[in-house]
Design brief:
The complex is a heterodimer of chains A (254) and B (391).
Chain A: E1 6-11, E2 14-16, E3 38-40, H1 42-58, E4 61-69, H2 74-83, E5 87-92, H3 99-110, E6 117-121, H4 132-140, E7 144-148, E8 150-154, E9 157-163, E10 168-174, E11 177-181, H5 193-199, E12 204-208, H6 237-250
Parallel strand pairs in A: 1-4, 1-6, 4-5, 5-12, 6-11, 7-11
Antiparallel strand pairs in A: 2-3, 8-9, 9-10
Helix pairs in contact in A: 2-5, 3-4
Chain B: H1 18-45, H2 53-59, H3 76-89, H4 91-111, H5 114-125, E1 131-134, E2 150-154, E3 157-168, E4 175-182, E5 185-192, E6 198-199, E7 214-224, H6 237-271, E8 273-274, E9 277-278, H7 283-311, H8 317-341, H9 353-365, H10 370-382
Parallel strand pairs in B: 1-4, 2-4
Antiparallel strand pairs in B: 2-3, 3-7, 4-5, 6-7, 8-9
Helix pairs in contact in B: 1-3, 3-4, 3-6, 3-7, 4-5, 4-6, 6-7, 6-8, 6-9, 7-8, 8-9, 8-10
The chains are: A alpha/beta (254), B alpha+beta (391).
The complex binds flavin-adenine dinucleotide (FAD).
Flavin-adenine dinucleotide binds at residues 99, 133-136, 141-142, 166-168, 209, 214, 362, 365-367, 369, 371-372, 375, 387-388 of chain B.
């Protein structure tokens, strides 16, 4: 397969590190951000990696990264530039947006750009909407394949593999298209210090964006109920019998 | 393992550039994902996990601060943060990188000919070659000026005789930077692996820095070509300038080890219960955590200042001595206290604290022991040399 040079846009979101133990802020609607670490949402990072791999395979092309988010999200854009993206566009916007608002802002910003491919993560790990990619495709009037496990490009066609429940599907889709990344698409590289040093010289355009009015409103946010106490089972016949009894009678899973 | 939560009590993060934070976060993630899964076994069995060398090269940390070729050229604070994060993994990992960068690449870069630089710097940066730094001898540690290794002129080249000891990376090194007296003056030589008469047996049996290679270097009538000499290093100042680089890195590094111990024991105190309550609910336990955090925070700030001074070209050797001395003593104290607070678990290798504690004994000793730095600072303060012969 010969990969053609592509103009790819990758949408990425700044999210709270997935390993952070989150706390709810006093208002009961937002996450308490004090002392929290942020990262590129993991599926978005896989999308960045695959875009870079395709560019490397083609030996040419351009990878632009875009984020909608607060001022501080330049860090995540720089991080993608450090991985190897060519340029970045930051739509600066404070506060929480829903997927429809985000998709509308991105569509407006990229509508007139000459692009072959837009990649997103299948979902951001904070809101878990899994909607921005498909909504963006609808705005642009492009086809969309979500949850891509593998992505290659041949001529003007993207070949996408998806893992369904028990089977594996291969789709061909005409470019330009939107594809969203599922785990397995690519293993993100570490940026490397050379990349980090080079990133500060790469173009990063930043502009304020006014989102359309929200049509959803978050009214409450709570942590899941604490898990029950941990019980240990002795590795003996008696211990296992106790475990089976508990699974059958208490948990009713057997 | 639960994710590492780095203490940053005075929001020093806000004093770092975006780039510096990115460098730090990248190396932190790499250590957690790629190095920590290897280190316990390497430590137990006593080897350096060499499979990380290409990855370190890929990250660009091997001498990548030097102004040469297409190296990344990051500043002193970024470099310090790299070493801090590496030593959060293990002092052996940080030692590998410090030796390669500050003690091998730096002298070649600073004192070498263009041909020597072109021969070695790209290979060492790319991890295709490993280097070591031979200064210490069996009979001359704190007093390297008394070294007995000797080079004599032999036609165009030199003949080297003597022995070095406690040399990190010695056995695995492709090139050794060896300090020897030529006509009574200390000079630096590049000795390649496989040169007849040169051997580098490993020193086994360490209780410390077990995930790092330490070796003797033995030179028996080793014939060196003329271009083995580093032309621009003369006298003890040559190796000392290298040590000055590496010592600054150690000051940063050991803070990473201390942070690892603090993070581990803080978590432990919250979950381990005695007398019906978490250990962390006892005042004595809390007081120890408070002392650790206070000392770590002070050392973090000192390092940041040292790094900025270095980038302004203003850091002095006594300042570096103070930072190295303070940070090592602090980190060792934190590790010892944390070891104690873990109880019996503190001696098990399921916990990393005792590994750090044992490592830090070496780190406190090498590159100038605590007391040697005391003497350096004492001389600086009083103008009186208290090292050896009576004033
Ligand atoms: C794991 C490890 C790795 C090492 N790697 C390297 C390396 O890569 N390259 C290299 O060249 N060296 C290396 N070293 C050697 C290290 O730098 C020396 O061990 C160190 O300089 C101390 O020297 P010494 O061991 O001979 O101790 P000594 O100099 O014998 O000191 C013993 C004790 O006496 C004290 N002392 C010495 N002189 C005085 C004085 N005048 N007044 C008061 N007290 C004094 C010291 O503080 C110390 O407590 C390494 C050491 C270790 C443990």
């Amino acid at each position: 397969m010969t990969t053609p040079p592509l103009k790819t846009l990758v949408c990425l979101k700044r999210v709270v590190d997935t390993e952070t133990r989150v706390r709810v802020a006093p208002d009961g609607r937002e996450i308490d951000l004090a002392g929290v670490q942020f990262i590129i949402a993991p599926y978005d990072e896989m999308a960045v990696e695959r875009a870079l791999q395709l560019r490397e395979a083609a030996g040419d092309g351009r990878v632009t990264v875009l984020t909608v988010g607060p001022e501080a999200a330049t860090k995540e854009l720089r991080s993608a530039l450090a991985m190897g993206a060519d340029d970045a566009l930051h739509l600066v916007c404070d506060g929480r947006l829903d997927a429809a608002q985000t998709a509308a802002l991105i569509a407006e910003a990229v509508r007139d750009r000459d692009l072959d491919l837009v990649l997103c993560g299948k979902q951001a790990t904070d809101d878990d909407d899994a909607a921005v990619g498909p909504l963006l495709a609808a705005h642009l009037g492009w086809p969309c394949v979500a949850f891509a496990h593998a992505l290659d490009v041949e001529g003007r066609t993207a070949v996408v593999r998806r893992e369904l429940d028990g089977e594996s599907e291969v789709l061909e889709v005409a470019l330009p298209a939107v594809v969203t990344a599922q785990k397995g698409l690519a293993e993100p590289r570490y940026p490397g210090l050379k990349g980090i040093m080079a990133a500060k010289k790469k173009p990063l355009e930043s502009r304020r964006a006014e989102p359309p009015a929200a049509r959803t409103e978050r009214v409450a946010l709570a942590l899941p109920p604490a898990r029950g106490a941990l019980r240990t089972v002795e590795p003996t016949a008696e211990g296992l019998r106790g475990l089976l009894t508990a699974l059958r009678d208490e948990k009713k899973v057997l | 393992m639960a994710q590492f939560e780095a203490p940053d009590f005075f929001e020093i993060d806000l004093l770092l550039s975006e780039e510096e934070r990115l460098v730090r976060d990248t190396v932190r993630a790499w250590v957690g994902e790629r190095y920590l899964p290897l280190v316990e076994r390497a430590y137990r069995e006593g080897y350096f996990p060499a499979q990380v060398i290409p990855e370190l090269a890929e990250l660009g940390v091997l001498g990548g601060n030097l102004d040469y070729g297409d190296f990344p050229r990051f500043g002193s604070v970024a470099y310090g943060l790299v070493l801090q994060e590496l030593e959060r993994g293990d002092s052996g990992l940080r030692s590998f990188v410090s030796v390669q960068g500050s003690l091998v690449m730096y002298p070649i870069w600073r004192y070498g000919t263009p041909a020597q630089k072109d021969r070695w710097l790209p290979a060492l940066h790319a991890g295709r070659a490993v280097g070591c730094f031979g200064l210490t001898e069996p009979d001359h540690g704190s007093d390297p000026g008394g070294m007995q290794t000797r080079a004599v002129k032999d036609g165009e080249g030199y003949v080297l005789n003597g022995a070095k000891m406690w040399i990190t990376n010695g056995t695995v090194a492709d090139v050794a930077v060896v300090w020897a007296k030529l006509d009574g003056e200390i000079r630096g030589f590049l000795v390649e692996k496989g040169t007849p008469g040169f051997s580098a047996p490993e020193q086994r049996g360490k209780h410390s820095l077990r995930a790092s290679v330490t070796s003797e270097l033995i030179f028996q009538d080793v014939r060196l070509p003329a271009d083995a000499l580093l032309p621009d290093a003369r006298g003890l100042g040559g190796p000392l300038a290298c040590l000055n680089q590496a010592r600054a890195g150690i000051a940063w590094g050991v803070v990473g080890a201390a942070m690892a111990c603090y993070d581990e024991v803080r978590r432990y105190g919250l979950t381990r219960r005695q007398f019906g309550r978490p250990l962390a609910s006892f005042q004595l336990y809390q007081a120890k955590l408070v002392d650790m955090l206070a000392e770590i925070t002070k050392a973090q700030l000192l390092n940041l200042r040292l790094g900025r001074l270095k980038d302004e070209g203003r850091a002095t050797p006594p300042q570096v001595s103070l930072a190295k001395r303070n940070a090592c003593a602090m980190a060792l104290e934190v590790a010892r206290t944390a070891r104690d607070m873990l109880g019996a678990n503190g001696v098990a290798d399921e916990y990393q604290t005792m590994r750090h504690m044992c490592n830090l004994e070496s780190v406190k000793t090498y590159e100038g022991t605590h007391d040697i730095h005391t003497l350096i600072l004492g001389r600086h303060i009083t103008g009186i040399d208290a090292f050896g012969a009576a004033p």
